[in-house]
Design a protein that fits this description.
With about 270 residues, this protein is mainly beta. Helices cover about 5% and strands about 40% of the residues. The protein has one domain: Jelly Rolls (Sandwich).
Amino acid sequence: MVKRAGLLLAVIGAAVIGTAGSAAASTGGPAYSKEQAGYSVTGARFKEVEVNFRLPGAGQFAADTGQVGLSVQLWSKHLVVDLRMAACTDASCQPGGKPADREYRLGFTVYSRSTRAVLCSTAANTCPDVPASWNRARYHSGRTVGLTLFFDPSTHYFQPSAPGEIYFGYTPGTSAVFTQGRIGVEFGATPWTVTPVKLPAHRTAVATFGVPAGPPYEAEFATYSGGAGCVSSWYAHHRVQMTSTGSAAGRLIAGPLGLSNLGCNFTVYLRP
């Protein structure tokens, strides 16, 4: 089994988290989605995305959305690789239902970026050698957890992991190069799902992403060359805004506010 590259930084590395790559770092233009809100980073070849968060009670959003997911992703020219925890907000997974505090399930899915077809899914057991425990894993709301999506460019294997679970077995081939990483909230089943969301009366926090207060400190992204840092560390970081059309022309539904904690932490909100 591949031993993933550690991103743990000593206390002295706290400044590194905020400044790695800062000589060329910039705030890029926003990205738009029909179902996702968060941040993306570009301008390097990424092999790892890792983040910590507290699982929100999904039922509290039942009036607004049918499901809530929290994810890390790697994007190449041809692939979107998604690792998430997701839960329905009620029994129907549709907005407006009776609130239910449902447990979060774990999923690792690989999509064709051009056709949007599912190439591999642990939930459907179409990925190779999926551990039985992976699909049985459940996570209660209120728990602080971490997700790690690691790709080893020397062996071309993925190694996604969550508390108590690790999967090793999917390889996208030798030509995959991941030039974008994302962290965010998912309101749909896939990166392109058209998601029915009812706008709340007031701005509503969904989830906050970040790193432990430390020590030690833990970076959110790592590159093929061994660099490690947080959202604002890279050449360009972009707010991922969820809109009604998945474009700038649509009405804003959800998005992040600014970064904090040396460019590592952010909160995603549903917008009125």
